[in-house]
Amino acid sequence: MMPAAITVKHLKKTYRGNTAPAIARLSLSIAQGAVFGLLGPNGAGKTTLINILCGLRSFDEGEVHVHGYSLPGQWKEIKPLIGFVPQEIALFPLLSAYENLKVFGGISGLRGAALEGCIHDLLSKFGLEQSKRRYLKTLSGGMKRRVNLIAGILHRPKILFLDEPTAGVDVQSKQVILENLREINRQGTTIIYTSHYMEEAETLCSRVAFIDGGEIISEGTPAELISQQPGCASLEMLYLQLTGTSRFQV
Fold it and tell me: Would you say 101 and 154 are in contact if contact means Cβ atoms under 8 Å apart?
């Protein structure tokens, strides 16, 4: 058994003005080196959970440990260990791809030759070397999303959080992103991943958890979960059988 990268115990979060919790007494353990998929419909609690694990949102009850450090008290120790890539393109449109990465690398504490080397290496791996001087606003959606991902991994985090990393991208960009994510994982980075693309999650993730109503309703490897449910041939079918709803977007 690999040691845990993330441990969550009895986590609860209720937003002000709501009676139903966004996260309801949720417990979870994610092993180091996993590609862990958090899957569920809009409003299920996925983004709230990711934001809590990244230290971006407080919680009401429970315990959260990241590589042995606890939130919120040891946030300074946790921050350098994680990378977060949001669904929205969190970049500066009037800067070039290269200039954006210089800014985000500096925020992560990288300087000089080390930063230049990381930028060059990742731009090359993601097929963006020839476009690095173009203003971000002139790049295609898929290219922007690749730059967005690079900005989150420049400092080589031990844990990478991805919120819909391939949403709305072309097939070529999607393949480049997924191939590089597999390589990043092979190098030892734990990946926590949310997506509405079930076929993608089925091939990428070593383990998945379905979340609905702020609770985990099923967890295991994709193959295990599919085989345990009679008449089920895919993760998408599994979800629909578990919840009896068509709310799930794919």
Answer: yes
pLDDT digits (tens, 9 = 90+) for 142-201: 999 999 999 999 999 999 999 989 988 889 999 999 999 999 999 999 999 998 888 899
Give CA separation, 111 vs 13, 103, 114, 117, 133, in Å.
38, 10, 6, 10, 19
HSE-up (13 A, CA, CB side) for residue 120: 6
Q: What tokens appear for 82 in the block?
A: 């994680």
Least Cα distance to 166 among 135, 193, 189, 206 occurs for 193
Other CB atoms closer than 10 Å to residue 116's CB: what's the count?
15
Q: How far apart are CA 28 and CA 62, in angstroms?
A: 11
Confidence (pTM):
0.91
User: Do 210 and 217 meet the contact criterion of CB atoms below 8 Å apart?
Assistant: yes
Domain formed by 4-243, architecture: 3-Layer(aba) Sandwich (3.40)
CB 134 within 8 A of CB 166: no
